[in-house]
Amino acid sequence: MKTMTSGLLLVAAGTSMTGCTTYQTKPMMPPVKMPHPNMLRTHTFAPTPALPTPHAQHRQKGIPARLSAPYFKRSLPAPLNLQPMIPKPLGNLTMQRQELRLVSDKIFQNESGGVKSKLVHWNHAENFASVGIGHFTWYPAGRKQRFGSKFPELLNYMVKNGVRLPAWVERARHHGAPWRSRAELMAAKHTPQVRELEDFLYRTRDIQAAFILKRAEEAIPRLMKASPQQHRSLVEHNLRSLMRSPTGRYALVDYINFKGEGLSMRGGYRGQNWGALQVLIAMRPEGNSRAAVNSFATAAMQVLQRRADNSPNRQDQRWIPGWRNRVETYRQWV
After folding, report:
1. Shortest CA distance to 59 belongs to which of 81, 88, 87?
2. CA distances (Å), origin 28, targets 11, 31, 100, 174, 327
3. How far is the C-alpha of 174 from the C-alpha of 157, rounded, in Å?
4. Which of 30, 180, 304, 327 has the least C-beta neighbours within 10 A?
5. Residue 212 clears pLDDT 90, i.e. is over it
6. Within 13 A of 85's CA, how many CA atoms are on the CB side?
7. Residue 16: CA count within 13 A, CB half-sphere
């Protein structure tokens, strides 16, 4: 009787005995008293601030200017640091102000011979104007656009980055080039309208180069995606090799602006395209940057010569000397 009483006392105190072992039991939780419904309150929480989107971040980036008033609505910080558009494993094509300016001057030299009056041009046997340092295509309103009208895209990019366009250019960017033919543009070359456009394009060379760079950055993922499976590792290797050096970056950016991406493996004459993808596939893989640039230049001329050979009546043979001069700058420029 005494032993039983002790056991009951231990249990009541929250302790149990099993053989010679004692252990502490968990006390029962007291009942929770719920508040009256009238006492419940509805709480409001401040929303979590949204993270800036990549596009918003891009708009906050600065574009260096070789500009003077009245073309800028606001000041733009430097140096240039465009939002990278290339997957991280491949790096990026972001350039600082000095490198971008060198690329700008080189592309201007390649396309227009560094001549200001050729910033507004119309090549023989073409049905569109070639405008700006990259000779961006600008079609008249209503004309079929085989190569796409790139100059309005540049103007849109400028406006988004705070550049004020000449009034007549602002109107024309929504409608098309104001000239219907080469003869019409040549007749207007010395008018105040064309002179104003030439002056504007000369002053905005850096932001035009930034636009060219942006397009090249955006092209890298597309080049990888469009690569045939059997060539994908080669294309990636060659891209890496080119992007390691300023010379390689210039060559890649210039060629994409010059002859496009070549994403369609059936495009071009006789189903053989001549864009950057075809050059990257034709390149020999090299272990150092300088050799990679030389390989890119060699492959570029092979691809361009094939285009000339495949062209109707070999009509593109006339462009070979100029194309070769341009591609040779990839080997020489540092």
Report:
1. 81
2. 13, 9, 74, 78, 85
3. 13
4. 30
5. yes
6. 17
7. 6
Neighbours of 29 (CB within 10 A): 6
Q: Report the C-alpha dihedral over residues 158, 161, 164, 166, rounded to 10 degrees.
A: 0
Residue written as tokens 């032993």? 3
pLDDT at 17: 39
Residue 30 has pLDDT above 50, yes or no: no
- Residues 209-221 have a mean pLDDT of 93
Closest CA to 134 of 253, 248, 220: 253
Residue 101: Cβ within 10 Å count: 17
Task: Specify the pTM.
Answer: 0.71
Within 13 Å of residue 296, how many CA atoms lie on the same side as its CB?
Answer: 37
Token reading at 224: 């990888």
